[in-house]
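To close the section, here is one more complete example, presented without commentary so you can practise reading it yourself. The ligand is D-glutamic acid.
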Amino acid sequence: MKTIGVFDSGVGGLSVLRALLTEIPQAHFVYVADSGYAPYGERSAQQVIDRAQRITTYLRRNHAIDALVVACNTATALAIESLRSRHPDLPIVGVEPALKPAAAITRTGHVGVLATRGTIESERFARLRARTQADTTAPLHFSCQACDGLADAIERGDSATTEMLCERYVHALQSGTHTTEPMDTLVLGCTHYPFATEELSRWCGPGVTLVETGVPVARRTRDVLKMGKAEAETDDGRHGAALTLLSTGDPAALAAAAHRWLGTQVSASSLKD
Ligand code: DGL
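Output:
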């Protein structure tokens, strides 16, 4: 059985783990929620790099992982190059805002992007945006919004603040734009945001497609591990994956979030690292 390490600043990466459990049902997943150091999105690049390096070293030493999934857009934007250069022998899959898939599905050419400040202000995001724009022949306009506080509110399960911030940021996207075309596609550029889909859809209104990245990332991980589709399917078609949950914050909160969003009854342990 392959062991795959997965980490995020907190519970957001569970939205990626959900897809991994479906796509690679015969793996052992070790999920680290770095909740003791969340949110990453408003930390310096060096702090995020340090946390990412520490967690990766821990996962390699203690769980002998075969691959790592950085289930966090912010950590991918700020730390994946540093991780790859320190761990050249470890397959590492990151998560990036789904600009290309969004460019392929938009009809109005107006795509909104919600992500953390760390992601939106990163060079990696600027390159991805420029590349997507260059590869698209039809008119394409991105409205990008840094969502301070939103991942943190979702992390804490604070539904009133989540609702208020979703309204604020969707409104900012729709009003601060330079195009008259209506936004018809919204990229969820932070792995926490799929857990606020209901609120975001409500404030966007009908006709806006929300795009997240869990499934493509899970498929990419399967390819990187050279696991074929057949190998990924159990006889009854359901996942039999083993799951270890670790948190640098409150393990009970992680177990509760996993129960709520993955439907699993797995207890979580505390990670002091
Ligand atoms: N879930 C993370 C992301 O995808 C980071 C949220 C945060 O800690 O700020 O960007």
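Once you have examined the tokens, check your reading against these statements. The chain is about 45% helix and 15% strand. The pocket of D-glutamic acid is lined by residues 8-9, 12, 38-41, 72-74, 116, 119, 151, 190-192 (CB under 6 Å).
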